[in-house]
Amino acid sequence: MIINFKYYLQQLDRHEKFIHGIVATIIIYISLGALLDASTRPYHAIVQGSTSLLSLLFFLYYIKSKNISFLVYSISITLFIEFDILLILDNFAFFSYLFPIILPLGVFFTLPLKNALILNTIHYIILLAISFYGYFILNIHSTIFDPKAITVFIFAALFLMSFGVFYHLSIEASYKKLQKANNQKAFLLKEVHHRVKNNLNIIASMLGLQGLESKSAEVKHIFEENRQRIEAIAIVHEMLYQQENYDSISFSKYIDQLAIHLLPLSHRNIQFHKEIKDVSFSIQKMQQLSIILNELIVNSIKYAFPSSIAEPHISIALTKEKNSFHLTYRDNGVGYSQQDFKNNSSIGSEIIMLAAQQLQAKSSTTHTNTFNYTLRFPHDT
Fold it and tell me: What CA–CA distance (Å, rounded) separates 204 from 209?
């Protein structure tokens, strides 16, 4: 249970962790207040306990739906109602106004300016109406109704509203500067990946031309293999500059692009199947995976499917486990054993093993009726 909770927290970004911390603090604080008031002020305890329970339910709904607006509105309104009720139960005591006056400040920190102004204005109007009700209808003469106290209350409310407006305007100005800088950075990063992809394609084309000029079939084969390796890496950079997120690449989409690029090299109609959930990897990890998969697919295309294999088939599966990913590559060709795979002196096998080491991965190869290559690598590589 503790491990699962730690894993859950690790999946949250800073903003979500901040929200979790604030809501947890509110729930704990109000729950403690309910426990302390349970014996001496039961009505206060009921109000606080109900608020704590509602806040917890709203928070659980937020965890499921990730609807931050609903969470902020629901908890803010619940707290407003709680403090207004406690204000009446405390007979409009001076210190009972402390939280109702200060609470709108938190709304400014969590809601857009327009929405925060509307919600806080409604709150202050209701608070003022309740105060008038207590003074004129209930005939309660609390120190809060003293002219000096009323003046302090008005100035405090105006100050908090002004501060909230100033806070939002300053944040908006800073946000525009950051957005401009981020757009420039994104443009430059996109341009870098575009140029890297173009440069890799130029190198691949040069290798292809050099291979065509060679009279040796073996040399042509070497040039062609290296051209394909470079193009497999170029696909990674091509996908990066074509998307808005430059931090990671969808593994499933990359596999689709790699299959489109490599399968036409075969004169056979190879069936391709994948079992991959929506998982994205960093460019560093994706480059190593692209190298491994390129070698495996090319090897299957060239050597695994003699004419005796009626229906050639390649499948790739990726599963996410607790601390690692499990990649499985399989074809129904002739294949070879794990020892043959390790002892193979070809550059392709060397490249696969070096890429696996870069991923800090454990690999294995089995061959019964099909060739299976498995790779297990950690999340945080």
Answer: 9
Query: Pick from 229, 181, 230: which is nearest to 201 by CA?
Result: 230
Q: Roughly what angle, to the nearest 10 degrees, separates helices 283-299 and 217-241?
A: 140
Q: Give the helix/strand (H/E) hosting 250.
A: strand 248-250
CB 254 within 8 Å of CB 286: yes
Q: Could you tell me the strand order of the sheet in which 271-276 lies?
A: 271-276, 313-320, 324-331, 371-378, 362-367
- The CATH number given to whatever domain includes residue 331 is 3.30.565.10
The burial of 280, by beta-carbon neighbours within 10 Å (0-12 exposed, 13-18 middle, 19 or more buried), is given as: middle
Residue range of the domain that includes 52: 2-145
Q: Using DSSP bridges, classify how beta strands 280-282 and 248-250 pair: parallel, antiparallel or unpaired.
A: antiparallel
Q: Whose structure tokens read 């596999």? A: 255
Among candidate residues 91, 117, 145, the one where a domain is terminated: 145
53 within some domain: yes
Residue in 315, 346, 345, 320 with CA at minimum distance from that of residue 331:
315
Per the structure, the count of domains in the chain is 2
Q: List residues bridging with 326 in a β-sheet.
A: 319, 376
Final residue of a structural domain among 118, 145, 172: 145
pLDDT in tens, 120-177: 999 989 988 988 888 888 888 777 778 888 888 888 888 888 988 888 888 877 878 8
pTM: 0.53
User: Where are the strands (E) in 266-381, listed by range?
Assistant: 271-276, 280-282, 313-320, 324-331, 362-367, 371-378
Looking at 28-187, which runs of residues are DSSP E strands?
none
